[in-house]
Amino acid sequence: MTAVLRRLAVPRCSLWRCLAVSLRETQRLYHHVLNRDGTRVLAGGRSSLAACCRSESRWQHTEAQESVEVDLKRLEGQDEGIAEVLMCRHRARNALGLVFVSQMRELMSTLSNDSAVRVVIFRSLVPGVFCAGADLKERALMNNSESDLFVHGLRSLMTQIALLPTPTIAAMDGVALGGGLELALACDLRTACE
């Protein structure tokens, strides 16, 4: 724990500032209003919650092949060096499915080689849920060999997160079940709301 705190104690990025930025962003995203058509709108603008994770995207994914379920947001200004991994699989409540895991593994590979990133914060854009664990609906459609490969991929992802060279923080604003709790435990620090 002391080693993690020492790594965070650099002039540009203190632990408390990282946590404050994460909580401030979470509060900003969860204070929303309803549009006339019933869709939820973020408090700071006119974009919907679903559009938020697409509009803040720093990755080029093709919408036709697969939707963005995990995204990256690099903070700027005073908070430069902080990267937020945004989990935004709204319908499945951030369940760990094939696309989600492959996008997360790709992102972890990129972050492990990025020297500009000093802290990685894992955060959910789904209100009340950090991560719902494995996607059991997808899992039911897999045969034994596909299921084994998927479980191996999940283990590999958790190892990648645990071995990231930068400190990692799980900003938990909701439930973390099964594999979602494993994801939080793979991080160096965990923060949770009431």
UniProtKB/TrEMBL annotation:
InterPro entries from the UniProt entry: ClpP/crotonase-like_dom_sf, Enoyl-CoA_hyd/isom_CS, Enoyl-CoA_hydra/iso
A Pfam family of this chain: ECH_1
PANTHER family in the cross-refs: ENOYL-COA HYDRATASE DOMAIN-CONTAINING PROTEIN 2, MITOCHONDRIAL, ENOYL-COA HYDRATASE-RELATED
Record-stated family: Belongs to the enoyl-CoA hydratase/isomerase family.
Organism in which the protein naturally occurs: Ameca splendens
Top-level taxon of the source organism: Eukaryota
Name listed for the protein in its UniProt record: Enoyl-CoA hydratase domain-containing protein 2, mitochondrial
Primary gene name: ECHDC2_2
